[in-house]
Task: structure prediction
Amino acid sequence: MIARVAKPALVAGLLLAVAGLPVFALQGEIDVDAVPSAALAPMQGPGSQLIQAEATRLTSQFAVSGQTSPIEDLTLSGTTWLLLDSLPSYNPLAVPGTRLALSSRVFQADASWQIIPGTLIWDTGKQIIHPSSGFFRAPLNLMSRGAAGNVPQQIPAAAPQWEEGWIGTRLLWIVGDISFEEFFAPRLVWSSDVDAALGYLSAQQNDFMNQVRVQAHVGGVDLQVLALVSAGGPGSADPALHAQGGVGVDANVGDRLTVRGELSLADSLSRLAVVDPVLLSTSSQSVPWVIRALAGLTWSITTKTSLIVEYAYDGLGFAGSDYANVIQYSRNRLENFGSVPDVLGQFGSFRAAQHYGFARLAENITDQLTAQGWIEVNVQDPSAMDGIGLAVTNDGWGLSGSITNTWGGSNSEAGASAFLWQLDIELKLFF
Result:
């Protein structure tokens, strides 16, 4: 009799215990991209005639996010991501041996405790750090990782759809319209061979980093000041202490216009430079006192039409004879595709120069249908990359398509790049 009573009581107790656990609200997204593109490639390997090579890159991204509050003033949240990629290098001649390359990351896993609700907040875990408000460049992202997986984007954006965070701890203190924030990230490195499995959880953190950020809201103006100190520490490739800093301003002008400006300064940053464009030789170069800046605006022309215009300067880019050597080197590299380092694209598409302009016009045709056109211009060449796109979004799914093209002379950034055009068709499923 005791056993008969105990068993239902045990089941009831387990049910009550489960019911008492906090609800972990989950939401997910599946993104499937088909990206036909054309690029210049040697017909029969390095040194042979260049031909237009066409290929279709297929990517499938899976992301799941969750959040819960087990007790008052404590929030747990996280996001995991997985990618299957048929052409991760964009090179139509470099198809993965397994046909699909697998990668994954824990983008964010954070515990946030409001020690003094609304005033003092402590976060620890993996957090995304993205202070910049720039649309196509982000000078204030002093420690940003950029887009995850180098997946195709239908429009160049400084805030990619998926971005990986940093493992560390943050303390935030809010006093009225002013906030003080400090984030510390430790150095985390491991052997890519022995501990390869860790690469499916997180990218390595090669430096100790400590970033301080002060924000203030005055009238319709948002101000922020950042300072970052980093060091590789003993045993690292660069154990020296480095410093960066930046300031940013965002202001509303009336009801329809927002203007922004950002400026950052780094004591030194590294880049790959051309030694001899004919012999295709390169070397690593440290650039002192690198300035990066952005100025832009967002204009809501009507309730359905908006325009973004931005100018960006990057002191890590090339100019003058250095830029001419990069273009000549890259033209020669096309004939030896894949056999020498890519100097032109080391920072991404259309980032080799110092001066760029960007414009994007978007129209909400209906509540579900959006059209956009954009152009990114290398002011030094000049050459450009442009595109148009349509997107349909519903409660449980979204479908979008875009086409991207480049234009410019043979001695321009567009002319020295292997890229010709790209069509991107993307299906999103939300659950």
